[in-house]
Every structure is written in C-alpha cells, then in structure tokens.
Amino acid sequence: MTIRLKVITPRKLLADADADSVSLPTLEGEIGVLPGHRPLYASLGRGVLSFRANGKEERFPVQGGFAEVRPDEVVVVTEMSEDERVEIPE
User: Fold this and answer.
1) What is the pLDDT of residues 45-79, one digit of tens each?
2) Are the beta carbons of 62 and 81 closer than 8 angstroms?
3) What is the Cα gyration radius of the chain?
4) What are the distances in angstroms from CA 21 to CA 10, 11, 54, 83?
C-alpha cells in the first residue's frame, strides 16, 4: 500500500510519487505519515521533508508552508530550492 505525495512550490510541481512513507517537519515537531493516515492539516516549519518510494529515500529542505494529509494523499505547498533536492542511496 502507498500514499500519493505531491510537493508543490511556487515555481513548479517538485514531486509527484507513490510513497511508502512521508516525514514532515511541522511547527509542533516531526510527524510520520503512512497510507491510511487520518486527515489533518499541518503548518510546516524549517527542516527536511523526506519520503520513501521504490526502495529509495528522497529529501527536500523545507522553509515553511503547509501540508494536507488524507488517507490516500499528502499535498505539500512550500517554499524551497529545487536545487537542494537530495537523493539518498539505499
């Protein structure tokens, strides 16, 4: 089972993937999101958004924004630099 992740910046859609898990840096601390998560809205703080898909972990530096979490989808709207995307080897 996966959860759809969309990461949107003012300039473009940065990520659109079926993820196994998503980690978000909220103002209240880091939260993990798995498929079937209860719906919520969260304000994002500074930190790293990461997700796992197809055996790879990807990370993005986040400079604020918000996330809408639904059982089958996470939509993140944030300010970040597309040049700072980092892929982590298995």
Assistant:
1) 999 999 999 889 999 888 899 999 999 999 999 98
2) no
3) 12
4) 24, 25, 11, 23
In the block, residue with structure tokens 């898909």: 53
pTM for the full model? 0.86
C-alpha to C-alpha distance for 77 and 90, rounded to whole angstroms: 27
Tell me phi and psi for residue 3, to 5 degrees.
-125, 135
57, 48 contact by CB (below 8 A): no
Q: Rounded to whole angstroms, how far apart are CA atoms 23 and 43?
A: 13
CA atoms within 13 A on the CB side of 37: 23
**Residue 7, CB-side half-sphere exposure with 13 Å CA sphere:** 26
Domains belonging to the chain, first-starting first, are: 3-82 (2.60.15.10)
- Spatial separation of the C-alpha atoms in residues 90 and 83, rounded to whole Å: 21
